[in-house]
Fold these 2 entries.
Entry 1:
Amino acid sequence: MSPDHLSTTFTALADPTRRAILARLATGEASVTELAEPFAMSLPAISKHLKVLERAGLIARGREAQWRPCRLEAGPLKDAADWLEHYRRFWEQSFDRLEEYLHKWQKKEKKHGRKQRKN
Amino acid sequence: MSPDHLSTTFTALADPTRRAILARLATGEASVTELAEPFAMSLPAISKHLKVLERAGLIARGREAQWRPCRLEAGPLKDAADWLEHYRRFWEQSFDRLEEYLHKWQKKEKKHGRKQRKN
């Protein structure tokens, strides 16, 4: 996958309506009208979002002229997840540091609590 | 994390230069000049990219006036990975389907190969 594909995927995901459309499609195929229902948006506005998702290869559409259901295509999501995976050790490190800090803080609090009881 | 934070993260990741900056910072802190080196880009152009990354919380910068090293902040990457994780079953399904298809195809090829040898 070239860097441009990854940029196209991240651009497509950088919008809450488009992410909500993907979440809806995760429950099954849907027509444009069905996808537009939960949003206070016109059909042309939804169609624009669908075009962005389609160009990014995140959705595919049926070929029937009347009923062109959209369905989720997860390939580009996997590539995005694979890219992010390289950074996992960094967020796990920050979590470890936070845990260590909380542990130290709890020990300090306990010590302080004991001192208060002694007085 | 509100949907807007996720949109800001994905927007920041939707550029190959910004992803390359993050990859460089994964190897350790760096100054703006050091970050600019591998790119055929002016310092102001790199600074613009750094501002996008900083606003998205993907990097933090030191406070020293002269030497303000940038470092990676992985929190928003974790949130993006968590969002993508919801779709894992879809790309694993497609992989299973591909594997199944290849398996069937190999069986067919083998059968065909045996037939050819018989003739």
Note: Chain B has a mean pLDDT of 87.
Entry 2:
Amino acid sequence: MVQELEEGLPLEKVKEFSLEELLGMAIKAEIGARKFYESLAERIEIPALKEKITWLAGEEGKHEALLRKMYGSMFPGKEVLYPEEHIGPELQPVARELHSAQDIIELIRWAMRAEEIAAQFYEEIEKIVETEDRKRLMRYLSDMEKGHYYTLRAEYELLLDWEMYSQMMHVGP
Amino acid sequence: MVQELEEGLPLEKVKEFSLEELLGMAIKAEIGARKFYESLAERIEIPALKEKITWLAGEEGKHEALLRKMYGSMFPGKEVLYPEEHIGPELQPVARELHSAQDIIELIRWAMRAEEIAAQFYEEIEKIVETEDRKRLMRYLSDMEKGHYYTLRAEYELLLDWEMYSQMMHVGP
């Protein structure tokens, strides 16, 4: 296992946690994802890719804020509870230097996996929350993570052909 | 039919055009999508949504540049050929004032439809181009449009509950 991705519990374990715990896990996961993308962006020198990863970091920051708002409305005045466990893979900050395209490709692949499971995780929480507005917010977050998944998959696909990537990514808008 | 979305030919018609024509259609569609998003962003007052739509406009601009680069490498020195017809829906600039959330919701729905078909259109072109690098570029574009589709679907989902949207979208990162 690589250091940037901590494998967590399988999705079925969602049932064993309270909604409060699940939201705490989600907030923790969004923070982890943001730090992962921020640290990855710092280590990437291709401007187009750096910009995209920085954008992803900002998106995860917004999700964290949305989740905190929902948490606050459901558990007013309570500190967020962060369980030790987490459902699905959780991204960790990138601490090492990246030496090759292969290093970046590998990290993008972990991020894809984490985004895919995050989308499913929000779908599971959607089943648990009771009001339509909370269900709606979970669908929003799930769709956003699906969007991230495809954005990353697009980059991944081009990165596999490094020569083409460097050539193509020098085009301006 | 609304003015912002022109229904084009069904996807099966791809076979009836040359690759040069299909690339011309794709470039025209990316230009149309960019102008659609730019004009939509100008008419939207919610900062978070305006920013997202502006981001989409920039993305389509990059796709246009990538396609022109590919066109240039396949048909060196040739002017881009823009057929009259187009496959699937094509987005047009928004010329009217938007008066309600419902107006925005409707436009986001057209955009979702256009992005979805665009993703399939690139998959069709992928089958036609012969070299691996060109197939790869088509997969890249197809995945990017899928990413846009889910990003839009997320916003659409929240917009349906306008009160919640305005409340949620005031959170900072």
Note: The helical segments of chain A are 19-43, 47-74, 101-128, 132-159, 162-168.
